[in-house]
Design goal:
The chain is α/β, with parallel strands linked by helices and about 270 residues long. The protein has 10 helices and 9 strands. The structure holds zinc ion (2 copies). Belongs to the PHP hydrolase family. HisK subfamily.
Amino acid sequence: MRLLADSHVHTKFSADAKDDMFDMCKTAVDRGLSYICFTEHVDYNQFDASYHYFNYDKYSDAIERAREKFGDKIQVLSGIEFGEPHVYQKEFEKMLSNKFDVVMAAIHYIGRDKVGVHWVDGTYEYDHVLFKDYTNERIFHEYYEELLQVVKLGGFDVLAHLDNPKRYLKESGHEEEIIGEIVHELVNAGIAIEINTSPLRRGYHECTPDFEILKQYLDFGGTRVSIGSDAHCCREVAMNFDYAVNLVREHKATLGIFKNRCFITI
Ligand SMILES: [Zn+2]
Ligand SMILES: [Zn+2]
């Protein structure tokens, strides 16, 4: 099976990733990809390792250099994975004035107090403190509540790893009703979902999301899907893509990438 695009990859421009863009491009070419999209973390949450870490100018220079070096072998696409844009709306708007091929939104934190922007201790969704104090059900529910606010805000192209606590909890937390509201908003706004393969390499048997949520999205009239490994090092580029491509084809979703923030079927 031909693996076309890895649409969710991190380099050293994200605080938690290890490898540089050239090495990631070289790996993607070696693995036969036609597209690689760099989606670096942009975070304004003081608890996050990537807090104020992203540097747009240096990043866009690196993208240009990667295009010069690898452009005849692979299309290098630029993007960001913006954490909790509904909480950091001013920063989000400002970031959107820069040029990207794709803007992804993600939730990585829960446990916010309901008054304002205050994150209690142990808020990262896979933090062991949170594991101890919250039931899995509560983690998923609070996560989906935050996610609903993100999709209502909109302004982005792809919603990253829709049921992400699965990656750490190693169980599915399907809540049909609130996910129904989330996918309804996504479909109305023309926002794509991604099939993120990262749980597979962490020992779980599903992507995030997998068939249940994908089916809900398609049943609501959604079509646009991208596939991403969420690689944080070369080894992880396009890992387990056969599974994800099969999933997308089986459900007759439209697989694509974003270029200049427009969806292109691949
Ligand atoms: Zn993420
Ligand atoms: Zn990511």
